[in-house]
Specification:
The chain is an alpha/beta fold. It has a domain at 5-90 and 136-218: P-loop containing nucleotide triphosphate hydrolases (Rossmann fold, 3-Layer(aba) Sandwich), CATH 3.40.50. Helices cover 32% and strands 26% of the residues. The longest helix has 16 residues, at 168-183.
Length: 267
């Protein structure tokens, strides 16, 4: 993991008419790390991603991505990032390989066929490369989607709720893919409502609540915010879910916490 700062956000603000979504958001992301942004529905997670990927203008504050200023160097930011949204953006009529070749050609990258074959191998999709993407499982489509995002080797990738709607096995496949990205030096900023996902993946976790980052740290640091519970003389460390609910409260402004709570039956 590199130590240089890949993303720096200071005082980020955004309103939609009379709704103040972001009220001064601050955080840094180290290069080659996985940074998870947690929050309930409507907390502003996707708004942060859209601003950092130049899809939405900020109202105030500053941000740098891959060393480029968001306001004065937006084209350089776009050339340095990739964004994978909540739903896999693959063409289901084309084969997996054809999807990759198409993106490489659209980005005017030479040797599109070799790039496609290399990415199919990297994401364990070689055998399925000649099949229409519409025949892929949810996990395979998501892996293909992420592979398409990596064409051009962007140093920073944004993943907006990457495992939404996936079954447990597909989620594990995507988790492994994300870990491999960071191991290869890619900086990953992901949003999620799955608390166990943040526990499994993130080097640092920030909780966004009522438009602000109210806590930011490693999993171990967040767990220290709550005392360990002792049951029958066995120390029990708090889970990330317990930390989250203790910080933001059982009820949010919409009348109830809608953060995804993973139970044993989900695994």
């Amino acid at each position: 993991m590199t130590t240089a700062t890949a993303i720096r956000v200071q005082g980020l603000e955004k309103s939609f008419k009379d709704v103040h979504v972001l009220r001064g958001v601050d955080f840094d992301v180290a290069g080659g790390s996985i940074f998870a942004l947690l929050g309930s529905n409507g907390a502003g997670k996707t708004t942060v991603i859209k601003i950092l990927s130049t899809l939405l203008a900020k109202d105030a504050g500053s941000a740098e991505v891959a060393g480029f200023d968001l306001s004065t160097q937006p084209q350089s930011v776009r050339e340095s990032i990739s964004l994978t949204g909540q739903f896999a953006a693959v063409d289901e009529i084309l084969t997996g390989r054809e999807n990759l070749v198409l993106i490489a050609q659209l980005r005017h990258i030479k040797n599109s066929g070799k790039i496609a074959d290399d990415l199919l191998a990297r994401f364990s999709l070689t055998e399925a490369g000649g099949r229409r993407a519409g025949t892929y499982s949810g996990g395979m489509r998501r892996r293909l989607d992420i592979a398409m995002s990596l064409i051009g080797n962007p140093p920073v990738i944004f993943l907006d709720e990457p495992t939404t709607g996936l079954d447990p096995q597909a989620r594990l496949e995507v988790w492994q893919t994300v870990k491999e990205l960071a191991a290869g030096g890619t900086t990953v900023l992901l949003t999620t409502q799955y608390l166990d996902e943040a526990e499994q993946l993130a080097d640092r976790i920030a909780i966004l609540h009522q438009g602000r980052i109210i806590v930011n740290g490693t999993l171990a640091e967040l767990k220290q915010l709550l005392p360990a519970a002792k049951v029958e003389y066995v120390e029990k460390q708090p889970t990330l879910e317990e930390v989250f609910l203790a910080i933001v409260g059982e009820d949010n402004e919409s009348g109830g916490s809608d953060i995804e709570r993973t139970t044993a039956t989900d695994k």
